[in-house]
Design brief:
alpha/beta, binds magnesium ion, single chain, 15 strands, 43% helix, six-stranded antiparallel β-sheet, Glutathione S-transferase Yfyf (Class Pi), Chain A, domain 2, binds adenosine-5'-diphosphate, 359 residues
C-alpha cells in the first residue's frame, strides 16, 4: 500500500501542500520545528482520523485559521481518494466522493504504523497505553472490533454512573452487567488471540535490532481471572465501596519482559526503546500478513535515539518495507545511519512548512 498524493491546507504550520509520492523510502530532512512531524501526523490522521500526538483536531488547525483540510490518494488493492475537512462546526469525510458517517465504516482505506517519541509510553507508561496499542491493532484487523469496544465502554460508563448512586437499581445494574459481560468476553478472546500472534514477531524483531540474545516477551494478563460474570459478582462488596467496576477488560494489562524481568523496571533506556520499536515492527508485520501488503511506516526521529549498533539492526527491517510497493516516511535532522537505506530512496527537504524534493 502507498500514499500517492497528499494535499494539506492550514494543517499546523503547513499552509498549503500538494505533493506526489512514489512507493519506496522517503526521507524527510530538515532542521527542528520545520514541519517534519506535522507531515507524518497528517498521513496518520488520514489513516485513523486522529493525531498520534494525543491531541484533539482543534489544535491541528493552523493558528488564526478556522479549519484544516487533509486529502490523500491511497493505492493498495483498491484506490481510495480520501478527503477530510475539519472545523469546530463542521466535519466532512469522503472516500471516493462518498460521504462516510461512521468512523467504524472508514478505517482500512489507509493503513499506517507510526514510530514516534510517544512510543516510550508503551514500555514506561500506564497499562492504558498498552491496551490502546492492542485495540488499535485489532481495529485495523477485525471488522466489528471498534463497535464492540464502543459498546463495552458505553456499558461500563452506564454501570459506573449507576454505582455512584446511593442505592443503585438492581434490575438496571443487572442489565448493564449483562451488556458488559457479553461484550467484555469477546474483547478478552480477541486480545488473547492477537497477543498470541504478536508474541513471536516481537521476539524476533527485538533480536534483530539488538543483535543480542535477549528474550523479549509479551504476555496478556486479563483482569478477569476465570469467568467475567463470576469475578464481577465476587467483587460486588468492593464495588460498593469504590463505586466503580473493578474487573474487566478496561483493567487488562499487557506485560512486557526482557529475559524474564519486567521491562519497565529493569530494562535500560536503549533496551526500552528497542522494545517499543519491536512492538511497532510486530504490528506492521502482523498487518502485512493479514492484508497481504505492508502498512505505510511513519518513522519520526527514531534513528537519533538509537546507538549505531541498533541503528544498523533496524535499517534492514524498515528498508524491507520500502521495497517493492511498500512505502516508508522517515524524518530526521541528519542522515546518521550506516549504509544505504534503500535503492528506492527519495529525499525531501522540509523548511518552514514547505516540502521540496532533493537530488
Ligand atoms: N496549529 C498550528 N498552527 C501553526 N503552527 C503550528 C501549529 N502547531 C504546531 N505548529 C508549528 O509547527 C512547528 C513544529 O513542527 P514539527 O513538525 O513538530 O517540527 P519538526 O520538523 O521538528 O518535526 C513549530 O514551529 C510549531 O510552532
Ligand atoms: Mg519532529
Amino acid at each position: 500500500m502507498h500514499l500517492a498524493r497528499l494535499k494539506l491546507r492550514d494543517f499546523r504550520n503547513i499552509r498549503r501542500l500538494d505533493v506526489e509520492f512514489e512507493p519506496g523510502f522517503h526521507v524527510l530532512l530538515g532542521r527542528n520545528a520545520q514541519g517534519k512531524t506535522n507531515l507524518l501526523e497528517a498521513v496518520y490522521l488520514l489513516a485513523t482520523l486522529r493525531s498520534f500526538r494525543g491531541v484533539g483536531n482543534a489544535q491541528i488547525i493552523r493558528h488564526e485559521r478556522k479549519a484544516f483540510f487533509a486529502g490523500g490518494l491511497a493505492i493498495g488493492q483498491a484506490k481510495n481518494d480520501i478527503r477530510y475537512y475539519w472545523s469546530a462546526v463542521q466535519r466532512k469525510l469522503t472516500v471516493n466522493e462518498k460521504p462516510i458517517r461512521r468512523v467504524a465504516d472508514y478505517l482500512g482505506a489507509l493503513r499506517t504504523v507510526v514510530f514516534c517519541a510517544e512510543d516510550a509510553l508503551l514500555v514506561n507508561g500506564p497499562a492504558k497505553s498498552r491496551r490502546r496499542f492492542l485495540d488499535l491493532l485489532l481495529t485495523q484487523t477485525r471488522p466489528g472490533y471498534l463497535d464492540l469496544l464502543h459498546r463495552y465502554t458505553e456499558a461500563l460508563r452506564s454501570r459506573n454512573a449507576l454505582l455512584k448512586r446511593d442505592s443503585p437499581d438492581n434490575v438496571l445494574l443487572d442489565s448493564f452487567t449483562r451488556e458488559l459481560v457479553g461484550n467484555g468476553e469477546k474483547l478478552i478472546v480477541a486480545r488473547r488471540e492477537v497477543v498470541k500472534k504478536l508474541s513471536p514477531l516481537i521476539r524476533l524483531g527485538y533480536r534483530k535490532i539488538a543483535a543480542k540474545p535477549e528474550d523479549a516477551r509479551i504476555d496478556y494478563a486479563p483482569s478477569v481471572r476465570e469467568d467475567f460474570a463470576v469475578d464481577l459478582a465476587k467483587s460486588r462488596i468492593r464495588e460498593q465501596r469504590y463505586r466503580s467496576t473493578l474487573v474487566g477488560p478496561h483493567r487488562d494489562e499487557l506485560k512486557l519482559s526482557l529475559d524474564g524481568q519486567a521491562a519497565a523496571q529493569y530494562a535500560s533506556e536503549g533496551q526500552k526503546r528497542t522494545f517499543a520499536i519491536a512492538l511497532k515492527m510486530a504490528q506492521a508485520d502482523y498487518l502485512a500478513g493479514i492484508h497481504g501488503s505492508p502498512p505505510i511506516l511513519l518513522i519520526d526521529d527514531v534513528m537519533g535515539e538509537l546507538d549505531a549498533g541498533r541503528r544498523a539492526g533496524l535499517v534492514p527491517l524498515i528498508s524491507r518495507v520500502g521495497q517493492a510497493l511498500g512505502q516508508v516516511f522517515m524524518t530526521c535532522t541528519e542522515e546518521n545511519w550506516p549504509g544505504e537505506l534503500s535503492d528506492n530512496l527519495h529525499r525531501w527537504q522540509v523548511d518552514e512548512g514547505t516540502v521540496s524534493r532533493e537530488g
